[in-house]
């Protein structure tokens, strides 16, 4: 007990997990080796998780729940650690995105995730760390998650990806001139792919812009359509046809008043 490290559950989600694990272990009078035996690992592994030197894995969390009789408490905490900086509904959306036959994206203000370069994504994550919104660890997880998400779309039979960007997405400088130049060039390259379509909704359309926040629409292999809509603090995945169809209609209306792909690429090249 002399070398027992003080834990700060407020430091991070992983620290909270470790502190809770230790407290519940202490309540049962078990040492780390005894808990490790019940979980199926070594006492040193339990120690590393408790003190935050090693992040918990999903199997570890589920085994801890079984050993401590905590239902799915640690499994839920693991999920929060893994996806803690993602909005509700988004992890499930990404799961469907991996198999979608068609993906339609609209974004205002920022280039949407599937089209972001790593440097652009890193600049956004670094800004969130600077403002205290997320930790450095969460920032790295966010960028890593995005790169994996992009890689999952580069499959043998890629989906049709249709993107409408508000003009603000290509005009707002992110990460400095070099980062933004690389991002704009990447958008041009995206538009050249045989399975993509890119349009810019210019400022000039004014009140005819039919969408005012991030909207993602997925057409699944069975031809059903689901939507994911996001605000600053909430994400909502919806499969109810009466809710999804108005978004599909609004998306088509927006495409009708947006620049053509050739005009959009010309604007991006000028920028």
TrEMBL record:
<dbReference type="Pfam" id="PF13560">
    <property type="entry name" value="HTH_31"/>
</dbReference>
<dbReference type="InterPro" id="IPR001387">
    <property type="entry name" value="Cro/C1-type_HTH"/>
</dbReference>
<protein>
    <submittedName>
        <fullName>Helix-turn-helix transcriptional regulator</fullName>
    </submittedName>
</protein>
<feature type="domain" description="HTH cro/C1-type">
    <location>
        <begin position="21"/>
        <end position="74"/>
    </location>
</feature>
<dbReference type="InterPro" id="IPR010982">
    <property type="entry name" value="Lambda_DNA-bd_dom_sf"/>
</dbReference>
<dbReference type="Pfam" id="PF19054">
    <property type="entry name" value="DUF5753"/>
</dbReference>
<dbReference type="InterPro" id="IPR043917">
    <property type="entry name" value="DUF5753"/>
</dbReference>
